[in-house]
Amino acid sequence: MNEMDISIAIIICSFIIGMSIGANDAANAIGLLVGSNTMGFRKSAIVVSIFIILGAVLQGHGVIKTIGKDIIHGTEVNRNSVLIFSALFSAILLIGLMTLMAFPISTTHAIIGSIVGAAIAINIHDRINFLKLYELFLSWILTPLFAIISAILIHFLIIIPISKRMSIIEFNRILQSLLLIGTISLAYSIGANNIGNSVGPVISAGIIADIIILTLAFGISMGLGAVLLSKRVVLTVGKRITAMGPVMAFTSQFSAGLTIYFFTLLGIPVSSTQAVIGGVLGTGLIKGTRAVDRETMKYILLGWILTPVIATLFSMLTYLFLNKFLQL
């Protein structure tokens, strides 16, 4: 494979990553609408896709820089197309496998783990920005905690005061609007934060410099993934975690959206899956611990822990394979 072939492969892989984000991370917003019986899958997917694209184009630049330039030191290293291709290809393998298993994983964890793994395989571990990795690791711990706390605060500061001032009919009417607002905020935040996972590697490889074109193109790929590939993960997120009604759906969505948006403003890529599950867990705790499917939570938590580790190993093996058999 020559340099042009690798560049084309990187663009294709990044587009697939975008669709994977739609199939996994965007499913969080869709799943909460479907799980609360507020809207059907198709309509939910279309609404979410539109605002994912808007978030990607309007506010995705900070996170793109972090993934594209801040994890590995040095311009000449970042432009190592073999490193980028190995990272993307291994991430696709892992995300694709988890998607087929209807396993909600973090695309962010997979991408960052893959970048680190490729850097180790190429023997440039001294160029890894460990301070940035520590910052990212800390944010991964704080994300679900922030979402849990936000969900509890939203419930007691917004939901309860509103419900006490209105009849059940009036409250339910307003709640439908609130639920849509919560979904839109979450979709927008996912687009703004997760776009870096697909655009960042392309920027890093120096293939295309126009961020507007990239964010629009890969934002559309995320939207396509949400519409075409997310249904199985939607069922896991929306129905298996907690028996959710409109009130809890709004609380979990809005808390997750606020959490993701906060980290987006800091330019920190976080797991939207962690944020949403944190919001769902917070609402489940409000209802009582019996409302939370503990087996499903354990299943998802295990995925959070293993994803970056497995992604790192996948990426190292992918580079070694490509280097030996394709002579990259």
Descriptive account of the structure:
By secondary structure, the protein is mainly alpha-helical. The protein is elongated. It has one domain. The protein starts with a helix and ends with a helix. It contains 14 helices and no strands.
Describe the structure using short key phrases.
328 residues, mainly alpha, 83% helix
> What percentage of residues falls in helices of 4 or more residues?
over 70%
Low-confidence stretches: none
* Discrete helix count: 14
Mean pLDDT: 84
Number of distinct beta strands: 0
Beta strand %: under 5%
Helix and strand succession?
HHHHHHHHHHHHHH
Report on the biggest sheet.
Answer: none
What's the topology here?
Elements: H1 3-24, H2 26-35, H3 41-59, H4 61-70, H5 75-78, H6 81-100, H7 107-121, H8 130-165, H9 168-205, H10 211-229, H11 231-240, H12 246-265, H13 272-287, H14 294-326
Task: Summarize it.
This protein is an all-alpha fold and 328 residues long. It is built from 14 helices and no strands. It has helices at residues 3-24, 26-35, 41-59, 61-70, 75-78, 81-100, 107-121, 130-165, 168-205, 211-229, 231-240, 246-265, 272-287, 294-326.
